[in-house]
Amino acid sequence: MSEQCNQSCSECGENCASRKPESFQAAANAGSRVKRVIGVASGKGGVGKSLVTSLLAVQMQRQGYNAAVLDADITGPSVPKAFGLTEKPHGNEDGVMLPVSSITGVKVMSLNLLLEEDTDPVIWRGPVIAGTVKQFWTDVAWGDVDYMFVDLPPGTGDVPLTVYQSLPLDGIVIVTTPQELVSMIVGKAAKMAQMMNVPVLGLVENMSYIVCPDCGKRTHVFGESRLEETAKTYGISMTEALPLSQNFAALCDAGQIEYCPENLLLGLIEALQG
């Protein structure tokens, strides 16, 4: 450090040991008062990440908190469908966009709510997609939110990096399934979080087992659970297992995820509140 250092790194070209790293974090909209932001991530697609995001928001709302979902999966958004939302977002008197609220009050913003038809494809390049996600944080007046859950697209590309750098993440929840291949991919998500200095708050193994409707026996259709083994490998203390359930699929298809059973993910919910 130079003797003449004034602690203003933005005005200095020296690469000294005390230089402060540049922050890419974006300021929230003036109409937003978000207390905690939690990302829901996975190393690959198809593991039920949007289901887990929706369940976490529903359960947190049931606990008496104001919950919200920022759908950052721009090219594959499914959160509005799970909540049965078709209303288009609208602006307030200041021209600021407002999120859409579900029947129980969960606030949602998703690109699918802005499309003319929900089956219209989004054929955009990475930087445009990443910019849109950032705008959902900076240009949307979320109001009072206790817990915002960010549904991340799979992988470690532009959008997850934008969320890690631009949003004030308090931590992430990683979603996986029992197959060894998927468990290996968990490592990528966990290591990305570590590199970005974001804690991994929990690991959810979706489609972990099915329950026989006649005898109640659990069967591991995708192989024995690797939940505890994977969590131990990456130092994750909180784990949850979700069954492969026809009921989950039916509720999402009907837009009725808010009617899900009340005993799901409660251990993780309690951990997130701590």
Classify the secondary structure makeup into a structural class. Answer: alpha/beta
CATH homologous superfamily caption: P-loop containing nucleotide triphosphate hydrolases
How far apart the termini lie comes to 40 Å
Estimate nothing, just give the exact number of structural domains.
1
Low-confidence stretches: 7-11
Number of strands: 10
Give the overall average pLDDT: 90
Walk me through what this model shows.
This protein is of the alpha/beta class and 274 residues long. It has one domain: Rossmann fold. Helices cover 29% and strands 18% of the residues. It has eight helices and ten strands. An eight-stranded mixed β-sheet has the order 3-4-2-5-1-6-7-10, with helices on both faces. A two-stranded antiparallel ribbon has the order 8-9. Helix 5 links the parallel strand 6 and strand 7. The longest helix is centred in the C-terminal third of the chain and has 16 residues. It starts with 31 loop residues before the first strand and ends with a helix. About 2% of the residues have low confidence.
Question: What secondary-structure arrangement, pairings included, does this model have?
Answer:
Elements (H helix, E strand, L loop, with lengths): L31 E10 L7 H14 L4 E5 L7 H5 L16 E2 L5 E3 L16 H13 L4 E9 L6 H9 L4 E6 L3 H16 L4 E6 L4 E2 L6 E2 L7 H7 L5 E3 L4 H8 L12 H8 L1
Helix pairs in contact: 3-4
